[in-house]
Design a protein that fits this description.
This is FANCL UBC-like domain-containing protein. GO terms for molecular function: ubiquitin protein ligase activity. It holds the Pfam family FANCL_d3. InterPro entries: Fancl, FANCL_d3, FANCL_d3_sf. The protein has helices at residues 3-11, 43-48, 78-85, 92-103, 108-112, 116-135, 200-211, 214-229, and strands at residues 15-17, 24-30, 54-62, 65-68, 139-144, 150-156, 162-169, 178-183, 231-234, 244-252, 256-263, 271-279. With 281 residues, the chain is an alpha+beta fold. The strands form three sheets. The protein has a four-stranded antiparallel beta sheet with strand order 1-2-3-4, covered by helices on one side. A hairpin with a 7-residue loop joins strand 11 (256-263) and strand 12.
C-alpha cells in the first residue's frame, strides 16, 4: 500500500478505487457544512432544505488531472468543480481535500434560495404537481425529487404504451419556470420540441398532445407489430424515440440471413434499405 493509498483510507474511508490501472474512484465523502439556513414556513420545507452531509462521488484520474461526475447534489457547485478539473493534483487525496473545502462552504445562491421568493416558487411547484396528479389519469408513474428541482413522469397513450418525460424546475429567475430536458419521443438531432413554460400543466399538456398525435400513434402501432412479429437485432432494447428497426428477414440452412433497416421520417412514411447479407457461424 502506497503512502497516498494509506492517506486515502484514513481520510476518506468510504472512497474506494475500482482498480489500480484505470484510476477510477467511487464512494461517499462526508462534509461538515459551515453555514445552515432554512425557511421556517412549515415543517415540510425545514426537512427539504436541511442539507445532507454525505456526497456521492465518482472520480476519474487522467495523469495529474481528475474529472468528477456531477450529480444532482453537486449541480450548484458545477463551476467550482470544473475549475478543479483543469488543475493538477499529485494524488486523489489532494483533490478530495480541495473538493471537501469547496463543499463545506455554502454558496451565495444557496442563501438566496432561502428567500421568500424561493419559498413561493416551491409552493407553486408543489401545488401544480399535486393538481397534475389529480386531474390527469393517463399518468402511469410520477416522481418529484426531494429538492423539488426535477419531475419525472411516465404517461400512457391510447395503446397503453409508456412515454417518459423529465422536467427541470428553474429557480434562478432567468427564464420560464418549467422546462422539458428529456423525453422518449421521436425527434431530429438538436431539435427542440418543447419550449419552457411557467405552468407545469401547460407544459405537460403540450407533451401529451404530441404523444397522442394520430400519425405518431400509427407509427407506434407499426413498430410494435414489427417488434412482436420480427427478429429485431437493432436496437436491442428499442425505446419510443427509436424510429428504426434492423431485422432478420430469413435464413438459408441456418447460415444466411438478410438484414433490413426500417426508417420513418416526417417527410416520408417508411423507407426500407437493404444492407446486404449476414453470415452466421
Amino acid at each position: 500500500m502506497t503512502a497516498y493509498e494509506l492517506d486515502l483510507l484514513l481520510k476518506y474511508p468510504m472512497i474506494m478505487q475500482r482498480s489500480t490501472c484505470d484510476g477510477e474512484y467511487f464512494g461517499y465523502i462526508k462534509v461538515k457544512v459551515s453555514f445552515r439556513s432554512v425557511t421556517r414556513c412549515f415543517l415540510t420545507f425545514l426537512l427539504l432544505f436541511s442539507k445532507a452531509d454525505h456526497y456521492k462521488i465518482r472520480l476519474t484520474r487522467k495523469l495529474q488531472q481528475f474529472k468528477l461526475d456531477i450529480n444532482e447534489d453537486l449541480e450548484k457547485y458545477e463551476k467550482e468543480i470544473k475549475r478543479l478539473s483543469k488543475q493538477s493534483f499529485r494524488d486523489p487525496v489532494e483533490y478530495l481535500d480541495k473538493l471537501t473545502q469547496i463543499l463545506s462552504i455554502e454558496l451565495p445562491q444557496h442563501k438566496d434560495e432561502m428567500t421568500s421568493n424561493y419559498t413561493s416558487i416551491c409552493r407553486k411547484v408543489l401545488q401544480e404537481y399535486t393538481e397534475l396528479l389529480q386531474f390527469y389519469f393517463n399518468i402511469h408513474k410520477s416522481f418529484i425529487s426531494k429538492n423539488l428541482k426535477t419531475i419525472n413522469i411516465i404517461q400512457l397513450d391510447e395503446g397503453m404504451r409508456q412515454h417518459s418525460v423529465k422536467i427541470k424546475v428553474n429557480y434562478l429567475n432567468d427564464g420560464k419556470l418549467f422546462n422539458i430536458v428529456e423525453y422518449d419521443l421521436p425527434h431530429k438531432e438538436n431539435e427542440v420540441l418543447f419550449e419552457a413554460e411557467d405552468s407545469l400543466i401547460t407544459l405537460y399538456e403540450k407533451f401529451m398532445t404530441k404523444v397522442d398525435c394520430p400519425k405518431l400513434q400509427m407509427i407506434f402501432n407499426i413498430l410494435d407489430e414489427i417488434d412482436h412479429s420480427c427478429w429485431v437485432i437493432d436496437p436491442e432494447n428499442p425505446c419510443r424515440g427509436d424510429l428504426h428497426r434492423r431485422i432478420i428477414l430469413g435464413e438459408l440452412n441456418g447460415l444466411l440471413g438478410i438484414q433490413l433497416i426500417l426508417l420513418i421520417y416526417r417527410h416520408k412514411f417508411i423507407d426500407c434499405n437493404h444492407f446486404g447479407s449476414l453470415w452466421y457461424p
